[in-house]
Amino acid sequence: MLLGLITNPHKVPHTNINSVQNGTSRQMEDSFNIVKHLRLVLEVQPFSYLIAEILHLYLSRLPLVSLPDPKSRSCLCSIFITVALICAIYFTGNAFLAKDFRVFLGLGMNNSQQNAQCGTCEVRLRQQKETSHTSTKCKEKCRPFGSEALPEGIVSKTSNLEMRPLWGDVDKKSPNSVNLLAIAVGIKQKELVNSLIKKFLEHDFVVMLFHYDGVVDEWNDLEWSSHVIHVSAMNQTKWWFAKRFLHPDIVSEYDYIFLWDEDLGVESFHPDKYLSIVREEGLEISQPALDLGKSEVHHPITVRRRNSRVHRRFYRFKGSSRCDNNSTAPPCVGWVEMMAPVFSKAAWRCAWYMVQNDLIHAWGLDKKLGYCAQGDRTKKVGVIDAEYITHLGVPTLGGGNSDGNKSSKELADHSPQSKNTSNSEASATALYEKFDNRSLVRNRSSIEMKIFWERWVKASKEDECWVDPFQNQETEPHG
């Protein structure tokens, strides 16, 4: 009855009018004014506000209205009870419905579907106060965080590393410039880096150099120097640079990101053929195999296999850490070394988030890269044998004595040739110890690996919504 009076105050039942005739005309006028007021409230305010207004009006007028009739007092009491029940049902139901709605939105959606719901939009548009003129389309539109004050057409969501001319017409971007080589370099390896970069530029790669020694001008005599990006910071690692300058939105236009060290020989490597194999094999994370006879090898899975195009696992049937066809975890399968990884666009977006801002050596990250493989890491991660490189194993960061001034060509004589992998690792360790602070750098790397592992374990336990696709397959890394 109360809601009927509010929605149509002129339609008052005759029984109510007859009962009021025994009271004063002032009481009737007050009641009629109350109903008119509540109707106006309902037109401009939500239902919860209306309930509060009803309580306020009746409570404020209670002392002023005499109700000698027991039926009137009973009616008023019923109104209070009804309003109280409506309030309880409204607020309790609202809380449950809001919770159930959020759960419903997440049902049946995997991570990719949830990310695709808003496309490249990072954050759902903050909901503004509902007004009658706001359309549903605008309410549900997604916007990057911070861009809400701008019209959608002016928002530029991504960027790239393409250089732009200061004057004249802009040349149309080459359709082949869709891959990126980012490499940490020092001037002592200038000759080796020159050979590497020239080969990539021949295949229309965008190239970005991270100068960890602060020397930039001495590269200007090379013909390609003005066509690549130079970033300089003293004594910083490749992963420090990558975390700060290779944000996924910056490199989103590039299909593949090569994040390489400088001490790599590419005489037998062809970038275009390599990527052709990667695409055909469906690899999201990969690396070229290492020529065992000319390379310093740290992990057997990286060694090139003759008469093979690509391999995804390593076999070791002796010792405590065996690798066979039943192995499902790194380093037996789903693993690449961090000196020459190649990421697809999607894999790098995931890996970038896993790179810790303060752990610049990125030790331990290699065993977790499989989580970014966009599927089964035993299939999506692999080593390309048909296109291989050499790894000279030149120690750079932390070097400072006379040996540290040697070039990569001179240090190539120290690289193991036709040695087994266990001797290779021992040889590499011995070579590192010759350089000032190399032992300190290695020690810090081991500490960072432990920190990374502890963070991973902590994060996986605390995130109740995350499901580990490789549960019970992981083992703690050893430095």
Write up what this structure looks like.
The protein is an alpha/beta fold and 479 residues long. The chain has three domains: 2-106, no CATH class; 118-147, no CATH class; 179-462, Alpha-Beta Complex (Spore Coat Polysaccharide Biosynthesis Protein SpsA, Chain A). The protein contains 15 helices and eleven strands. The strands form two sheets. Strands 3, 4, 5, 6, 7, 8, 9, 10 and 11 form a nine-stranded mixed sheet that branches. A two-stranded antiparallel ribbon has the order 1-2. Helix 3 (25-44) packs antiparallel against helix 4 (47-61) and helix 4 packs antiparallel against helix 5 (70-106). Mean pLDDT is 77; it is low at 1-7, 9-15, 98-114, 400-405 and 414-422.
In summary, what is this structure?
It holds the Pfam family DUF707. Residues 415-426 have a biased composition (Polar residues). The chain has 479 residues and is an alpha/beta fold.
- Helix residue percentage: 25-40%
- H/I helix tally: 15
Count of structural domains: 3
Give the overall pLDDT as a whole number.
77
CATH architectural name of the largest domain: Alpha-Beta Complex
Q: How much β-strand is present in the residues?
A: 5-15%
Pfam families: DUF707
Region (Disordered): 399-426
InterPro entries: DUF707
Keywords: Membrane, Transmembrane, Transmembrane helix
Describe this protein with a few key phrases:
single chain, 479 residues, alpha/beta, Spore Coat Polysaccharide Biosynthesis Protein SpsA, Chain A, 3 domains, 9-stranded mixed sheet, two-stranded antiparallel sheet, 10% strand, disordered N terminus
